[in-house]
Prior knowledge:
Blueprint: H1 3-24, H2 28-61
Organism: Paraburkholderia caffeinilytica
Region (Disordered): 1-63
Family: Belongs to the UPF0337 (CsbD) family.
Amino acid sequence: xxxxxxxxxxxxxxxxxxxxxxxxxxxxxxxxxxxxxxxxxxxxxxxxxxxxxxxxxxxxxxx
Length: 63
């Protein structure tokens, strides 16, 4: 697991918290912020996943 994967998951969690707070307090801005954080976290995690897959492929092909 690399830093982009960890940061991406962390951002997704923060986004879920903000979304829930926004819903609970009827604050659409906070809810939107949470949605955007979750989306950004998914993108960052996907980037980290791709880096990890590339690294694994290089290791496999080096054999």
